[in-house]
């Protein structure tokens, strides 16, 4: 606490300055990071649930569109497979999985519909907004044998197609559209018409090269080929662990920023209250001096030689006289009419004395005291 008015003035000026200080809101970046991390965790959780529910690597929206078409046409969902569900990378070539995913990507999410169902499938597709980009490919009844790959390093040799009524068509499409040489170095792409590196650089034709690194080539959470969802599910579970850790860290930063801001607001409010004080309200020295003076006055008034002690004698004599009159005329006092006797303790002591007892016997139980005025200081029977 300040000990002088000058110190208080300095403190007051500082308090006014702090009270006027603006407390900024929590940073947008901090808030946005917390929000985005929660969304990322929710998204990967949905993907995990979708893999467990549908046993497919395709996007949930595509699966929903297929369910709608199958219901509209009146056939099982398995009647309309996506091409990617029928294609997988041979286990001995698993290192090329990411590169194969990039090459086959235009075909893997294509919905295959046999010719006899294409008309009703088109009508059903037109009847509703699907909320997703859906590519449908009509599959003919008969399919020629696929041509042999041009290069021994062809991606065709590293892929496997599931057996079924559409297997011949899928093999032909792969041999025709995705006969890409798998080369170990980008310079080797000069020697092939179409090729791909293990890092995911794709040569589509003699002049066009493509590398889609929006996601890492080895990111299994993006893979859609094959009917086995275990690899993608494992990758998604790992991604969820990472997303949860990131969400918790972002939430912690957000909570810390909130706490710091709240502390700043509380501090500002304290300074606002301090700035309303005056020197008289906090001058402890002056207050202590006034208190001491009042105590000294009180001590003087209550001391043996003080004014209060001086007036007790005559006041006591007055009440003793009144008691004597009451005792002679009415008997011992039983209670005060006009208020408490200021010497009540002494009165009770005197009432219990032998003199009072004799007076009580003298009056007798049958004596009737005269009516007294209510203004009398004596006690009523």
Q: Whole-number average pLDDT?
A: 82
Q: How many runs of DSSP E, i.e. beta strands?
A: 8
| Low-confidence runs | 335-340, 349-381
- Topology as a string of helices (H) and strands (E): HHHHEHEHEEHEEEEHHHHHH
Q: Strand percentage, roughly?
A: 5-15%
Rg of Cα set: 51 Å
Distance between the termini: 63 Å
SS content category:
alpha/beta
Gross morphology is elongated
Percent helix range: 40-55%
Textual characterization of the structure:
It is a single chain. The strands form 3 sheets. The chain has a 4-stranded mixed sheet, covered by helices on one side. A two-stranded antiparallel ribbon has the order 1-4. It is elongated, with a radius of gyration of 51 Å. 53% of the residues lie in helices and 7% in strands. By secondary structure, the protein is of the alpha/beta class. It has 13 helices and 8 strands. The longest helix is centred in the middle third of the chain and has 45 residues, at 230-274. Helix 1 (5-19) runs antiparallel to helix 8 (230-274), helix 2 runs antiparallel to helix 8 (230-274) and helix 3 (60-73) crosses helix 6.
What's the SSE blueprint?
Layout: H1 5-19, H2 28-54, H3 60-73, H4 83-86, E1 87-89, H5 97-108, E2 110-114, H6 118-126, E3 135-139, E4 159-161, H7 167-177, E5 181-183, E6 195-197, E7 202-203, E8 209-210, H8 230-274, H9 279-282, H10 284-302, H11 307-329, H12 344-351, H13 354-363
Parallel strand pairs: 2-3, 5-6
Antiparallel strand pairs: 1-4, 6-7, 7-8
Helix pairs in contact: 1-8, 2-8, 3-6
């Amino acid at each position: 606490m300040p000990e002088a008015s000058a110190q208080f003035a300095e403190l007051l000026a500082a308090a006014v300055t702090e009270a006027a200080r603006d407390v900024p809101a929590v940073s947008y970046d901090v808030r946005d990071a917390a929000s985005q991390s929660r969304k990322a965790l929710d998204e990967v959780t949905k993907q995990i649930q979708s893999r467990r529910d549908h046993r497919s690597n395709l996007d949930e929206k595509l699966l929903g569109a297929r369910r709608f078409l199958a219901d509209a046409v009146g056939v099982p969902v398995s009647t309309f497979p996506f091409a990617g569900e029928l294609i997988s990378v041979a286990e001995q070539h698993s290192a090329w999985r990411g590169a194969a995913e990039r090459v086959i990507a235009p075909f893997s999410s294509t919905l295959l519909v046999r010719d006899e169902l294409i008309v009703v499938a088109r009508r059903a597709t037109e009847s509703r907004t699907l909320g997703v980009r859906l590519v449908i490919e009509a599959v003919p009844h008969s399919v020629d044998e696929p041509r042999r790959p041009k290069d021994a390093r062809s991606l065709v040799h590293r892929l496997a197609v599931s057996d079924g009524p559409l297997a011949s068509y899928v093999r032909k499409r792969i041999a025709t559209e995705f006969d890409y040489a798998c080369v170990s170095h980008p310079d080797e792409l000069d020697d092939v018409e179409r090729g791909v590196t293990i890092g995911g650089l794709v040569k589509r034709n003699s002049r066009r090269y493509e590398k889609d690194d929006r996601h890492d080539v080895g990111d299994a959470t993006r893979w859609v080929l094959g009917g086995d969802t275990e690899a993608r599910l494992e990758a998604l579970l790992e991604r969820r662990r990472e997303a949860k850790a990131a969400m918790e860290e972002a939430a912690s930063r957000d909570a810390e920023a909130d706490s710091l801001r709240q502390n700043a607001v509380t501090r500002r409010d304290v300074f606002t209250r301090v700035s309303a004080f005056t020197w008289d309200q906090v001058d402890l020295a002056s207050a202590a001096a006034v208190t001491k003076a009042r105590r000294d006055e009180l001590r003087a008034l209550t001391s043996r030689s003080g004014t209060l002690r001086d007036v007790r004698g005559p006041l006591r004599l007055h009440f003793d006289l009144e008691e004597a009159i009451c005792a002679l005329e009415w008997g011992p006092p039983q209670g005060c009419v006009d208020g408490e006797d200021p010497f009540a303790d002494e009165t009770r002591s005197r009432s219990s004395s032998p003199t009072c007892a004799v007076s009580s016997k003298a009056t007798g139980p049958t004596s009737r005291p005269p009516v007294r005025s209510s203004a009398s200081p004596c006690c009523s029977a």
